[in-house]
Write a structure and sequence with these properties.
Helix content: 40-55%
Bound molecules: prephenic acid
Order of helices and strands: HHHEHEHEEHEEEHHEHEHEEEHEEHE
Domain Prephenate dehydratase: 95-270
Structural class: alpha/beta
Catalytic activity: prephenate + H(+) = 3-phenylpyruvate + CO2 + H2O; chorismate = prephenate
GO molecular function: chorismate mutase activity; prephenate dehydratase activity
Number of domains: 3
CATH architecture of the largest domain: 3-Layer(aba) Sandwich
Coiled coil: 1-28
EC number: 4.2.1.51, 5.4.99.5
Strand content: 25-35%
């Protein structure tokens, strides 16, 4: 055996021993998760809540904080994300509805938020995601709410207004679009298909690189990839994963007009999320039509030093020229300071709906 072979054998023996220890510990952790499930269902409780986003956020934050290994914090957190995902599946398999088909950015964000032991349930519209959760076909739903270059996703906003579902988590995804097709050359492409948002995000690029091509919006990018699989004159805009899944050639990468392209997704469900120590609260209000009414409401937060991270206005679907505001603030609705502010906001609003409090994402 050469010295190199000897060195490799020695270090691999060390790795084998470490893996054995890790495996024993993961097994012990899984037993603890089973005990947690027993406690949650004690006394025949039928409405036990197994998925606890606040606890998951705390675990992942602690992993990142104590990480002083050679692995980056994010990589370490991802490993623990997977361990917890398997532990949760042992307690109860969790089904999450998302805008499919498989390979969509929504699918990628389901895996990012819940890990790969989740039962990912693709549906064909954002409305259907909400419906699946309302009807109990899925435990949770995951929907895009805002993109850094294209703005808000209206159908998600409409459903958040319409349904009684709560927001229980937030996950952000960096979006990098690829152009993919059965064809290998731009010249063969007659039409570009993608979700409206993706077409908007790549508008300039399409004009510059495929000036003669038609453009058609379809329900999702992954559906576009599926269509391109069946027709070589089509090119889809979708993720690298979608190209793999639908066996398409990637003609171009990073075709988004603004490279800092992020989409924020929310987890919606029926449960209320407990405080995690670093949370956001989201609400919808509409104000009375009088001078200073909005300022009056916003002061409820500012005078208590509550940080508002987002305010978006949109026309109300009820009354022409009436506006509703989607507001995000830092804090949990049960924090004394925020609770007081929210109570005051409610009294000053013509319409008030609390969408929920959820952990600031550690991933
Ligand atoms: O602490 C709990 O409530 C658990 O169920 C355990 C656990 C974990 O594996 O750490 C698993 C699933 C929950 O979403 C949160 C945490």
């Amino acid at each position: 055996m050469t010295t190199e072979q000897q060195q490799l054998t020695d270090i691999r023996n060390q790795i084998d021993e470490i893996d054995r220890q890790i495996q024993v510990l993961i097994g012990e952790r899984a037993k603890c998760a089973q005990k947690v499930a027993d406690i949650k269902t004690q006394g025949g409780k039928v409405d036990a809540v197994f998925y606890r986003p606040e606890r998951e956020a705390q675990v992942l934050r602690a992993v990142k904080e104590r990480n002083d290994s050679v692995l980056p914090d994010e990589s370490m957190a991802k490993l623990f994300r997977e361990i917890m995902s398997a532990c949760l599946a042992l307690e109860q398999p969790v089904t999450v509805a998302y805008l499919g088909p498989e390979g969509s950015y929504s699918h990628a964000s389901v895996l990012k938020q819940f890990g790969s032991s989740v039962v990912a349930h693709p549906v064909s519209t954002i409305e259907a995601v909400f419906e699946a959760v309302e009807k109990g076909e899925a435990n949770y739903g995951l929907v895009p709410v805002e993109n850094s270059s294209e703005g808000v996703v209206k159908s998600s906003q409409n459903e958040l207004m319409r349904t009684r579902l709560k927001v229980s988590g937030e996950v952000e995804m960096e979006i990098h679009h690829c152009l993919m097709s059965q064809s290998l050359e731009h010249a063969q492409i007659k039409k570009v298909v993608a979700h409206q948002q993706a077409l908007g995000q790549c508008e300039q690029w399409i004009k510059n690189h495929l000036p003669g091509a038609e453009v058609e919006a379809v329900e999702s990018n992954a559906l576009a990839a599926k269509m391109a699989q069946a027709d070589a004159t089509l090119a889809a805009i979708a993720s690298e994963e979608a190209a793999q899944l639908y066996q398409l050639n990637i003609l171009d990468r990073h075709i988004e007009d603004y490279h800092d392209n992020n989409t924020k997704f929310w987890v919606v469900g029926k449960d209320i999320t407990q405080p995690s120590g670093l949370d956001k609260t989201s609400l919808i209000i509409s104000i009375h039509n009088k001078a200073g009414a909005l300022l009056d409401v916003l002061e409820c937060f500012s005078k208590r030093n509550i940080n508002m991270t987002r305010i978006i206005s949109r026309p109300s679907t009820e009354k022409t020229w009436d506006y509703v505001f989607f507001i995000d603030v830092i804090g949990h609705k049960d924090d004394a300071n925020l609770k007081e502010a929210l109570d005051e906001v409610e009294t000053k609003s013509a319409f008030y709906k609390l969408l929920g409090s959820f952990p600031v994402s550690p991933l």
